[in-house]
Write a structure and sequence with these properties.
Elements lengths: L2 H18 L2 H7 L17 H34 L7 H8 L12 H4 L23 H5 L2 H17 L4 H14 L5 H37 L15 H47 L1
Helix pairs in contact: 1-3, 7-10, 8-9, 9-10
Length: 281
């Protein structure tokens, strides 16, 4: 019920109360010697009705003032609110830019995800679904992926891997997904691998030469033939031979230790390169 409806209802109740009051009560409250006039235009309402009407009007005014104050506070709150600026999509919908401004060329890493099949002939339906390939399989050449997979399997079985091929694959990925400093890192790994490989080859040659020399000193050649040397004093010959054999064995042991250390470094380098690639495939 609205405020105006409540006001009209209260006024009707007042009229009903006034009309329902008996004339005897009205004449009883009038002073003696006064007469009740029949003309309704000159008749004055009772004092209690006027007071009741004033009370009702004051109550209504208070309610109206309270509602008006609430409306004014709400209006002030709304006017003081701060809304964010419209976003780019709102502006685009309002401004309606040409569609050509929204078209762009694909990036290199986006183009490698799609392949054209216009020139391929579809002869028959394959008997089985193709195996799912990883991200590297979609980015790199199929032959290269097959070589890497076979290299990874060989490395897992024999502990050896083609580091140069893995570095080449890393360079191919770096061209598609350029990362700052990756090219320098790959060159450092390639240089370190070449140094280790050359050092291992050199130490293997030294070990072979030392073994050949040791065999000669023991009296046998590489083919197992007996070598006759000029006779020397027995005591001097035995002493010098034992000393030389000990020195050669110590040198061979040191070279083998160095060779084992370098092979360990190469295996560690292979493990670092093989781990991420095996996970990618």
């Amino acid at each position: 019920m609205t405020a105006m409806a409540r006001t009209m209802a209260v006024r009707n109740m007042v009229v009903i109360v006034i009309s329902a009051e008996p004339e005897s009560d009205v004449s009883a409250r009038l002073p003696r010697g006064s007469e009740v006039h029949e003309n309704p235009r000159t008749e004055q309402p009772p004092a209690h009705c006027i007071a009741l009407h004033c009370n009702i009007m004051s109550i209504l005014n208070n309610k109206f003032e309270r509602h008006l104050s609430q409306i004014e506070e709400a209006a002030n709150d709304i006017s003081s609110m701060r809304f964010s600026k419209p976003g780019i999509f709102t502006n685009s919908q309002v401004a309606r830019p040409p569609i050509t401004s929204l078209i762009r060329d694909t990036s290199p890493y986006e183009r490698v995800l799609f392949s054209s099949t216009l020139n391929e002939e579809f002869t028959e339906r394959p008997s089985a679904l193709p195996a799912k390939s990883g991200l590297l399989g979609s980015l790199l050449d199929g032959n290269f992926v097959h070589q890497v997979q076979s290299t990874v399997k060989t490395a897992q079985l024999k502990g050896d891997v083609d580091v140069e091929m893995l570095l080449q694959g890393a360079e191919d990925l770096a061209r598609i997904y350029p990362i700052p400093g990756l090219d320098e890192r790959i060159e450092q790994l390639r240089s370190r691998y070449q140094d280790l490989f050359s050092s291992v080859a050199l130490h293997e040659e030294l070990v072979a030469a030392q073994r050949a020399q040791l065999d000669l000193q023991r009296g046998t050649t590489k083919g197992g033939l007996i070598v006759h040397k000029a006779k020397a004093p027995k005591a001097t010959r035995d002493t010098s031979t034992k000393a030389e054999i000990q020195d050669e064995e110590i040198a061979i042991g040191q070279l083998e230790v160095r060779k084992f250390e370098m092979e360990s470094e190469i295996r560690e380098l292979d493990r670092r390169l093989t781990g991420p690639i095996s996970k990618a495939f």
